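pls read this protein.

:::
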Amino acid sequence: MSGCVDVLVVGGGPAGATAAALLAMAGVRVRVLERERFPRFHIGESLLPAELAIFERLGVTLEPAFSLRKGGAEFWNERTGQHARFDFCDGLPGTPTFAYQVHRAAFDAALLGRAEAAGAELVWGQTAEAFEVLDDRARVHTDAAPHDARFVIDATGQRAWLGRRAKSLDRIDGFGLAAAYTHFDKVPDDARAELEATGNIHIFMVDDGWAWLIPQPGGRVSVGRVSARRGVRASDLDEAIGASPRIRRATEAAERLQSHLCGNYSYRNRSPYGVRHACVGDAAGFLDPCFSSGVAFAMLGAEWLVDALVPALAAGAEADPDLAAGASRAMDRGYRTMGALIERFYHAGLVDRLFFYDTPTPELRQGLISLLAGDLWRDDNPFERLLVSSRRRSGKGHDPRRPERA
């Protein structure tokens, strides 16, 4: 490990691994700094159909040992008996028809392994601390050594290294603020068979937020509770599990694993790129995970950045401060659309009309399903047009760049 590389990727999660793999496949000299050792635990097991094309481009096959085919999403209000199921195959023409639930530790390791196999250099156990732009390169100082590169990609997830360093993270109010979650192993055979028949994610309406139940391969489930108020506790998760017949059915005879708490949920980085650097994935922004958009935004954002970066490197134009502007604009559209849908999700009356309406207009239902599939960048979705325009008319939409520090 020596000398200046073309690109230094800080962080080896889905965003960083995708960027590193695509860069290495294009013949770019790329180095990845990852402060943890893989495999490592990570939440966010539910993927979207929008990611299928990038899996194909990467040449990554999701092995049955760590993946389960997912047909769609189901929404429940068990207090009222309301239930709605949305199958990805019922989306607009062209929307991919399935996705996967994954063990994130194995999934993330597979993506990073693909980057290494393509030629990326991996450096473990170093934490980025400082960043500076020199005349002909950028330099990242870690707790162990400096690293020079023509361009730096911040893929540090919710650590959001460059954004926190620059104090450029703006909180998005009105979404979930904190979560408590755990895994259950050795789910009983009958409950496991029922969940794995569709592989669907199950989302439950609860006071001040929502809860999830996600089947995983090997007889495990992920269970969590997101709250729109601060100060979520492990007991809030216990209460959500106890109040849900469906979650209890899947978990009461299973082995509960360690519980986790996390906060600071939704934010955008108002300065996601600049001279010789750009942020991707959660380092660029993170939305409430109720529709599982995190990995899709991470991988697609990394792909679009790489598609701009490779020719810039070849032309010696990687210092252009607007190099990542196009990729950032594309991601802004995704954040805007998904943010509008999340807003509706946290409004009880709108939830009833969106998800539990008995006879919706077929074209609008198809459009909603396409959004749930992560198919956010098309111009023929009538539901998206209605969603975004109504948000603008109301004047109540959350501006992801509002000056409220995360």
